[in-house]
């Protein structure tokens, strides 16, 4: 986004150079007409000012093609230089009575469409201030005065021109800035929606593959369970082997239970039945299921007893998203992790602390983006799916670095508060 904005500012500077070129051409023609009509104007001073503006335009054009990005403040300085050059030309050629006085609206419009609010107001106030000064301080040009027989006094025509310019400047500053900001916000929203569509396409592809895989796993798991039961019967005289087989049997049972819950959740969604559970029991079961799959990882668990005053969705994708966060922490710190689950009144928070090598900067910057990140431990698809799922439930996932090492993962989920007596 930042690099695109800097490129846009360079393009705007090139457009400003083209606008200057048109203005300089008009002024050269006007100066030629003044000479042909033998008007009493300081041709030398006006010629020098035009030469300086030509040089500035050439330098600005070369600057716009430089690799060094054009900032908003620099673009403001270019607009202020144009206003200053125009002010000097108007001073030597009749001041506020010069027809070119309305050109002040052009740099004001450009600033309103391209620069932030505060910079646009600087340009607007400067244009109004210079216009006001040119009403009094100028070198009169009798041929341009509306009533040149009494040009020492300000005519109603000149005052009306000033009032019209002031109102126009204020209106442009307000409405054009608002419209330009609305267009920028809309463009940003469209970019965000395109990213979300791309992410959803990837998630749907993964979901389709996962559904097929889950269907195919049923038969192998049933076969493994039968074989494990036979092995347990045959190894009754070997306690060590029996203990290992018991662990394998519990793992297989956990996988079968997960598949059954997945099918049950899919059926309930097809029937339009929404399942909700008390948060305390939900998270206790979640941690029990996860620890069953990772028995070698010491788990320090803290659950706020007040969580049963809330309820959470029984959606299987939400449970899998939270398990993905636990898996990441367990893989980074296989010896032990700490999990704290509580509430701040409106949201349920799940804090996961590990003592692993720490969070990679590229993963922290790209979490939730449709780009799959290559890493030593995987492809980053778990973080992508987790972020998408929790965002769908209105929650957030934030990763922090811990000192001196490790990662703090914080998942926040909005919970619907229910009466403790219900």
List keywords for this structure.
5-stranded mixed β-sheet, Heat Shock Protein 90, 3-stranded antiparallel β-sheet, 8 strands, rod-shaped, 3 domains, 422 residues, disordered N terminus, alpha+beta, disordered C terminus
How would you portray this structure in words?
This protein folds into three domains: 2-195; 210-270; 277-417, Heat Shock Protein 90, CATH 3.30.565.10. The longest helix is centred in the middle third of the chain and has 79 residues, at 156-234. Residues 1-6, 148-153, 366-379 and 417-422 have low confidence and may be disordered. The radius of gyration is 36 Å and the shape is rod-shaped. It has a five-stranded mixed beta sheet with strand order 2-4-5-7-6, covered by helices on one side. Helix 5 (117-134) packs antiparallel against helix 6 (156-234). Strand 6 and strand 7 (407-414) form a beta hairpin. Helix content is 63%, strand content 11%. It is an alpha+beta fold and 422 residues long. It has eleven helices and eight strands. The chain has helices at residues 2-36, 43-64, 72-91, 105-114, 117-134, 156-234, 239-270, 279-293, 316-332, 361-366, 381-392, and strands at 276-278, 298-303, 310-313, 336-343, 347-354, 396-401, 407-414, 416-417.
């Amino acid at each position: 986004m930042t690099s695109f904005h800097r490129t846009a500012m360079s393009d705007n500077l090139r457009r400003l150079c083209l606008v200057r070129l048109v203005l300089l051409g008009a002024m050269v023609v006007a100066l030629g007409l003044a000479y042909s009509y033998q008007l009493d104007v300081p041709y030398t001073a006006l010629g020098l000012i035009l030469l300086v503006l030509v040089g500035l335009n050439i330098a600005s054009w070369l600057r716009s093609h430089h690799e060094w990005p054009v900032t908003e403040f620099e673009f403001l300085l270019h607009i202020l230089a144009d206003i200053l050059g125009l002010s000097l030309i108007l001073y030597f050629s009749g001041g506020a009575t010069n027809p070119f006085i309305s050109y002040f609206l052009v740099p004001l419009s450009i600033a309103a469409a391209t620069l932030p609010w505060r910079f646009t107001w600087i340009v607007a106030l400067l244009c109004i201030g210079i216009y006001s000064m040119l009403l009094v301080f100028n070198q009169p040009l009798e041929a341009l005065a509306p009533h040149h027989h009494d040009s020492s006094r300000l005519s109603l025509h000149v005052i009306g021109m000033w009032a019209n310019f002031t109102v126009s400047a204020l209106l442009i500053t307000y409405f054009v800035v608002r419209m330009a900001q609305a267009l920028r916000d809309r463009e940003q929203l469209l970019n965000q929606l395109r990213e979300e569509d791309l992410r959803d396409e990837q998630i749907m592809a993964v979901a389709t593959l996962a559904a097929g895989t889950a269907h195919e796993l049923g038969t192998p798991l049933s076969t493994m369970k039968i074989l494990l039961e036979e092995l347990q019967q045959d190894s009754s005289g070997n306690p060590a082997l029996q203990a290992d087989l018991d662990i394998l049997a519990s793992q297989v049972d956990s996988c079968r239970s997960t598949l059954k819950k997945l099918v049950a959740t899919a059926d309930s969604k097809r029937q339009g039945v929404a399942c909700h559970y008390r948060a305390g029991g939900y998270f206790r079961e979640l941690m029990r299921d996860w620890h069953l799959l990772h028995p070698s990882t010491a788990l320090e668990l803290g659950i706020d007893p007040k969580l049963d005053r809330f309820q959470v969705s029984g959606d299987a994708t939400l449970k899998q998203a939270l398990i993905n966060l636990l898996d990441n922490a367990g893989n980074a710190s296989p010896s032990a992790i700490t999990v704290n689950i509580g509430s701040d009144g409106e949201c349920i928070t799940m804090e996961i602390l590990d003592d692993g090598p720490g969070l990679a900067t590229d993963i922290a910057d790209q979490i939730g983006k449709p780009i799959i990140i290559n890493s030593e431990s995987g492809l980053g698809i778990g973080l992508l799916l987790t972020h998408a799922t929790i965002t769908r439930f209105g929650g957030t996932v934030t990763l922090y670095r811990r000192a001196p090492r490790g990662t703090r993962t914080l998942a926040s989920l909005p919970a619907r508060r229910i009466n403790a007596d219900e």
